[in-house]
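Handoff note, outgoing to incoming analyst
You'll be picking up this chain. Sequence as last confirmed:
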Amino acid sequence: MDWNTVKLIQPFAGWRPQPGMAAKVAAPPYDVLSSQEARLLVKDNPESFLYVSKAEIALDPAISVYDERVYQTAARRFAAMQREGILRQDAAPCLYIYQLTLGGRSQTGVVAAASVAAYCSNRIRKHELTRPDKENDRTRLAEGLAAHSGPVFLIYRHTQALQDLIERIQGSAPPSEAFLAEDGVHHALWVVAEAVHIEQLVALFEQQPRLYIADGHHRSAAAARVAERLPHADRFLAVIFPDSQLQILDYNRVVKDLRGLSTGDFLQAIGQRFQVTPVATFVKERHSFGLYVERHWYQLTLDARWIDEGDPIASLDVALLDRYLLRPILGIEDPRRDQRIDFVGGVRGLAALQGLVDSGQMAAAFALCPTSLEELLAVADADQIMPPKSTWFEPKLRDGMVVQTF
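Most recent structure output, in case you need it:
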C-alpha cells in the first residue's frame, strides 16, 4: 500500500526506548515543568528524555532557554540516545496503541503520523492561538533533531468500530512496554505491526470528518512551519483519543495584585455583576467562580442576564470571567501576555491556589468550573478560538515513548 495516499494518518518507524527502559526515558511534557523542576526530576536519571525536550537543564541556568546552545545540546543528546541504543527504531512503519490509566480511569489512543496538510486545511481543528516565542522554540527543536519528539494530543469522535478494533489488538498480545510513573499514571504501549491492523486503523480514521487538537497547538503549528521548509517532513507525531474517554480539569487563575484596590473595594466592584457569598470552599458550578483572597473563599455567581448561552465562546466560564471581572476591574486585557496573571492546572487542587495567595506570591486566586468537552468541540466546529488557558487535560502524555524522525 502506498501510505502517502492516506490523507489523515499513516504509520511510521518510531524510535522507542529499549525494552525495560521506558520508565526511565519517557518524561513529562516540556511545558508542564519549569527548568528548575526538570533539573530536580532528572537529578538521578541521566536517561531521561527531558535532556532532549528541555535541554537547558544540562547547561548553566543563566543561559536563556532559547539560546542556540540549548538546541545543539538537545540534538547531541538525541543522537547519543540513538547511538547508544537507549532509543531503538522499529524496522518497519507501525502504528501504536497508547493507554494511560489514572485513578481507575483509562484512555486509549492511537499513535500515528498525522497529516500537516490536514492541519493546514482545518481538517485537524485548533481552538487556541499560539505564542510566537513558544512556536519558534518547538520549530527550532524539531529542525535541530530532525524529529517530532513531543506528541500532539488529538481527539476523534467515538465510533464503535474503532473501539472494537483497538480492543481486539490490545487483547491479542500484552503491551510491549508498561510502567507506573512517579505521578501515579500507568502507561502502556502496544506496537501495531501487522499490515491488516494498520490498514484497518488507517481506513477507519479516514472516515473521521475531522480531528481536534486537545493539547499541542504549538507543536502542531511548529510542524507546519517545518514542513514549509522541508516538504518531506509532511507529518507530525500525534496520539488520537476518543472523546468518550477524556476528562477536562479546571484551569484556574491567580493574579499578582488588585490594581490598587483594597479587598473591600474589590469585592464591592465584583458585586455589581456577581452575587458574592462567603463560603468555606469553592463549589464547582457552571457560571460560578471561586475567589480566594486574604485567607477567605467567596462564591461569585454571575447574573444570568449577562450570559449569552447561544454563543459558544461568550458562554464559556473563562470568557465570562475575562469579560466581567479580569478586564474591567483588574485591567487585564490580554491574559496571554499580561505578566500580572498566571494559570494553575486543576490537577494541583484548590490547596495550590490557597498556597500561592497565603504565601504572598499572589494577591488573589480564581477557581473555575472545568470547560466541558462538548463546549470545546462546539467552539472548534464553529471554527472559533477559545480564550487562552481554557482546558487542562489529565493525565498527560509522556515525551519519548515514541519519537518520529523525518
